[in-house]
Amino acid sequence: MEEHQAPRAKVITLCGSTRFEAEFAEVNQRLTMGGFVVLSLGMFSLPDLPGYDWTVDSLNLKGRLGGVHLQKIRMADEVYIIDPGGYRGESTRREIAYAESLGKPVRYLSREPPAGPAAPR
């Protein structure tokens, strides 16, 4: 029996402020249902680690989490910015600049029609 390999699905990394958790979930679901591989934020708030002082962050966990997200951008074919109302904070602007420096196409939720895209280009 001859096996056919499906074409590789486009990988899309979602970026944006953690305050938009609901929008991340909606876009993630829509794109996944469209057949895309979606990479998103690993968490939307810092975990409550008993005895850990996030204000000091002695283990540089924030930096390490940021590094993981940059790896997701490197793995992506495209980056999709979750920016309701056009809001892009400092971290998101850095991620956009990083994606553009790698030549990744960058799309914005705020620039899509109200219903959102059926599928990324």
Brief synopsis:
With 121 residues, the protein is α/β, with parallel strands linked by helices. Helices cover 33% and strands 14% of the residues. The protein has a domain of 84 residues.
Features:
alpha/beta; four-stranded parallel beta sheet
Describe this structure in words.
This protein has 121 residues and is of the alpha/beta class. The chain has a domain at 8-41 and 60-76 and 89-121. It has 3 helices and 4 strands, in the order βαβαβαβ. It has a 4-stranded parallel β-sheet with strand order 2-1-3-4, sandwiched between helices. The longest helix is centred in the middle third of the chain and has 15 residues, at 61-75.
* Number of E-state strands: 4
The succession of helices and strands, N to C, reads EHEHEHE
User: What would you call the quaternary organization?
Assistant: single chain
Distance between the termini: 34 Å
Cα-based radius of gyration, to the nearest Å: 16 Å
Relative helix content:
25-40%
State the helix count.
3
Q: What structural class is derived from the secondary structure elements?
A: alpha/beta
Give me the secondary-structure topology.
Layout: E1 11-16, H1 21-33, E2 37-39, H2 61-75, E3 78-82, H3 90-101, E4 106-108
Parallel strand pairs: 1-2, 1-3, 3-4
